[in-house]
């Protein structure tokens, strides 16, 4: 184990020297990426009801932002856990560019706590209070704020939502607990969906050794008030409440995160993964894996759960409440979202409009964002073509409400 750790450190150092830059390199921002792909960008700041200030990027497809083909519904693309909008802007074949070239009005979300959205109107991200959230709050506060902002800005009645991994989790939270939002969605596209997660056989329940190991490790950092996990680039070291890969105590975490971080740097040229989130977000996923269900955060005591949820135990989210039309893309080679769980999800969702099963085993969780194996590019192109066709087809469906005013009057 020790020598493995040494190897990781060594390869990190090697990578930095090789690039003649320090590991605290200046990041290539979403704006840089949009510009180098030949587009212009717009930056929008959205404030959530609980005061978080989020950054939305919009890809401007023509000088007056009136695309050549008039589309009915904008597209919001939402990244997953410990990630950010850059994920869809890697190389020329990122999904955001593919859709912009197809004349879609593309918006890229950034969730509270990451590099682009480490901001609040009242509290400082350098303190602990800022990091007191998980994907439940992100779904109910961040996704709703972004959806409302885009509809307000464009005057459209509905938008298309594309989520990757936690980008789907947050959507399911919103759509199952705040039913009125289903009407604001034309099509929801789930890439590598994450709801119930039962793939990891070595975590059959919350009493197993591996569960305890991960759970106790996360709790340790939370008790030490190190509640900001894996800040990116120049944000590292800003606050004493952070945990970076370098200062993880447990060797197995340090080694695996270090390796993934290094691989992603090689593949994308930057620290796209991991990017900042709260320790509580990681704990919430861990709890769900241990419980084998898609459920609310467990505060650890009946009294605290009662205060937060009105029940002694955290209740599962009701997938059958999600009325929005959903398309599901999953891969059998995905290390995190299994075929079994994706099929379970599909069986529970009341309004599934398309399912695509990607069978190439090399196609992983990250391939929904950027290419990890050039030999599997054809799978990626097939997925992009399918997404474009689906969006076009569903955009053309003539609906009673063509614009917001009209729609509000009729509903
Ligand atoms: C986090 O939020 C919960 C629920 O709102 C609250 O009970 C708890 O005191 C908060 N913790 C911190 C450290 O702010
Ligand atoms: C939890 O999983 C372990 C290992 O698979 C098993 O032996 C044990 O019976 C399970 N406990 C419960 C409560 O299901
Ligand atoms: C494990 O799950 C059971 C049943 O859901 C729950 O009562 C218990 O508090 C959980 N234990 C831990 C350590 O999370
Ligand atoms: C957080 O701390 C850093 C370093 O002390 C400082 O540069 C930054 O302005 C602080 N941020 C806020 C929002 O207070
Ligand atoms: C994907 O890559 C693997 C490994 O290189 C290869 O065996 C497989 O045929 C590829 N799949 C497709 C559909 O190109």
Q: How would you describe this protein?
A:
It is a single chain. This protein is of the alpha/beta class. It has a single domain (29-406), classed as Rossmann fold, CATH 3.40.50. 37% of the residues lie in helices and 13% in strands. It is built from 12 helices and 11 strands. The chain has helices spanning 2-18, 30-36, 95-101, 135-154, 166-177, 209-223, 251-268, 279-291, 302-309, 339-348, 377-396, 404-410; strands at 40-47, 53-60, 75-78, 106-108, 159-164, 185-191, 228-229, 242-243, 277-278, 326-331, 352-358. An 8-stranded mixed sheet has the order 1-2-4-3-5-6-10-11, with helices on both faces. Helix 4 packs across helix 5 (166-177). The chain is globular and about 55 Å long. One 2-acetamido-2-deoxy-beta-D-glucopyranose is lined by residues 128-129, 132, 308. One 2-acetamido-2-deoxy-beta-D-glucopyranose (NAG) is lined by residues 206, 291.
What is this structure's SSE topology?
Blueprint: H1 2-18, H2 30-36, E1 40-47, E2 53-60, E3 75-78, H3 95-101, E4 106-108, H4 135-154, E5 159-164, H5 166-177, E6 185-191, H6 209-223, E7 228-229, E8 242-243, H7 251-268, E9 277-278, H8 279-291, H9 302-309, E10 326-331, H10 339-348, E11 352-358, H11 377-396, H12 404-410
Parallel strand pairs: 3-4, 3-5, 5-6, 6-10, 7-8, 10-11
Antiparallel strand pairs: 1-2, 2-4, 7-9
The chain binds 2-acetamido-2-deoxy-beta-D-glucopyranose (5 copies).
């Amino acid at each position: 184990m020790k020598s493995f750790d040494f190897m990781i450190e060594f390869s990190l150092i090697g990578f930095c020297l090789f690039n003649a830059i320090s590991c605290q390199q200046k990041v290539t921002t979403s704006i840089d990426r949009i510009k180098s792909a030949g587009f212009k960008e717009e930056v929008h700041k959205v404030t959530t009801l609980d005061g978080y200030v989020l950054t939305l990027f919009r890809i401007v497809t023509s000088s007056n932002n009136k695309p050549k083909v008039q589309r009915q519904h904008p597209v919001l693309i939402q990244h997953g856990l410990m990630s950010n909008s850059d994920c869809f802007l890697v190389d020329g074949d990122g999904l955001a560019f593919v859709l912009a070239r197809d004349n879609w009005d593309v918006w890229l979300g950034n969730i509270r706590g990451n590099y682009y959205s480490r901001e609040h109107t009242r509290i400082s991200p350098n303190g602990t209070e800022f990091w007191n959230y998980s994907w439940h709050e992100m779904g109910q506060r961040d996704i709703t704020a972004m959806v409302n902002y885009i509809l307000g800005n464009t005057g459209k009645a509905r938008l298309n939502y594309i989520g990757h991994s936690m980008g789907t989790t947050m959507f399911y939270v919103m759509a199952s607990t705040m039913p009125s939002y289903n009407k604001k969605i034309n099509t929801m596209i789930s890439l590598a969906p994450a709801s119930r997660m039962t793939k990891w056989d070595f975590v059959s329940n919350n009493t197993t050794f591996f569960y305890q190991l991960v759970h106790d490790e996360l709790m340790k950092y939370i008790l030490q008030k190190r509640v900001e996990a894996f800040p990116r680039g120049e944000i590292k070291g800003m606050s004493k409440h952070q945990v970076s890969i370098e200062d993880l105590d447990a060797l197995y975490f340090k080694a695996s995160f270090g390796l993934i971080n290094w691989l992603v740097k090689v593949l994308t040229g930057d620290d796209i993964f991991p990017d900042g989130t709260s320790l509580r977000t990681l704990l919430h996923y861990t709890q769900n894996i241990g419980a084998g269900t898609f459920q609310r955060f467990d505060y650890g005591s009946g009294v605290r759960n009662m205060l937060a949820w009105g029940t002694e135990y955290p209740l599962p989210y009701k997938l059958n409440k999600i009325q929005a039309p959903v398309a599901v893309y999953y891969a059998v080679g995905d290390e995190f979202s299994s075929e079994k769980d994706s099929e379970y999800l599909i069986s529970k969702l009341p309004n599934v409009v398309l399912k695509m099963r990607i069978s190439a085993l090399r196609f992983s969780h990250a391939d929904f964002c950027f290419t990890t194996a050039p030999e599997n590019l054809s799978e990626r192109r097939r997925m992009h073509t399918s997404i474009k066709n689906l969006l076009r087809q569903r955009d053309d469906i003539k609906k009673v409400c063509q614009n917001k005013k009209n729609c509000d009057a009729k509903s």
